């Protein structure tokens, strides 16, 4: 009965359509408070942040006061929110109505203090910077202001101290993708086209993404593929397996990018650094494949190719070998010792065969040279020996020519080997510099 009697006493002549002050020059001060409960979603493409907050309002209604002694010392009562005046405080960044539960009551104390506590699902526009993804930190604002009343009618203030609001994580659900760092509060006045000023209270919700999932599923596979590409340089340059190995890595990386394309945030404003990282890794793989094709072309020169130019020998086989600290530099110098050694016995046989009087081509020549022709029984045998000598000479010339071709191929193989080492170290230096730069940037952003 006391609650009914008090409710009838307060609302029987109450006018909810007017601001609850007895003097119109009195300003209604509304104290507000905010606690972040959960980060529901971050839509980078549409630049929308969805949060779930606990919102509290506090103001004084001069027409909702009573003497507790007349109502059994009752100092507080809950009234329907539709029956009293409430301030028209909205969030400027609202882009859609969230699925917020409706709280039908407010608490009113005997001094006229009204407390309106309600949970709100907030879908607000936010300028999301994804350049540092997945080590990004987002700063989104929630601006509370009266949509109609200027500052002389409704003024805003903070319910609690700014330090208490800043580090309050008592109700935050800390198991999602995003981590709440702090909530900053700031009061300011603004005016539109030199009209009356309006009061607004800004809350800056600063959140940080947890990068473990993206590190394991995006960065580590890419790093493993790049390491395998570097290991592929240790395959012999004259082996055809290196080209197929590099092509397989390039195809695997392309499939990897197709798989992770849906995971990367997409915006029309900019590209995250990790997207640039993937593109550069793809470019490095293409450069590695191009370098491999160049080396294979050098070490598989055809037999009719000319010798290696002298300036190439001086530049690569001498200076570059010393610069690259290649230990087996002696093996890089072209050698034809085997061919010269094998040609000597053939030449000796040829020289010993020349003065042989039985090696004449015609009997008349033998008679002119020695005056006496060979015995008739040996004439047919001498012609057979002469044919054998011609065949041996042809075989010797063929072996010399083949050894010369082998020397040319060996020279190009040595040039390809030195050039492969040079390009591999330059490629390795570029990959290491790129990795160190990205690792440093991401570490600084993570610890900032």
TrEMBL record:
InterPro entries: 5HT3_rcpt, 5HT3_rcpt_A, LGIC_TM_5-HT3, Neur_chan_lig-bd, Neur_chan_lig-bd_sf, Neur_channel, Neuro-gated_channel_TM_sf, Neuro_actylchol_rec. This is 5-hydroxytryptamine receptor 3A. It comes from the Eukaryota. Forms serotonin (5-hydroxytryptamine/5-HT3)-activated cation-selective channel complexes, which when activated cause fast, depolarizing responses in neurons. Forms homopentameric as well as heteropentameric serotonin-activated cation-selective channel complexes with HTR3B or HTR3C or HTR3D or HTR3E. The homomeric complex is functional but exhibits low conductance with modified voltage dependence, and decreased agonist and antagonist affinity. Heteropentameric complexes display properties which resemble that of neuronal serotonin-activated channels in vivo. Interacts with RIC3. The gene is Htr3a_1. Residues 4-211 form the Neurotransmitter-gated ion-channel ligand-binding domain. CDD domains: LGIC_ECD_5-HT3A (cd19011), LGIC_TM_5-HT3 (cd19063).
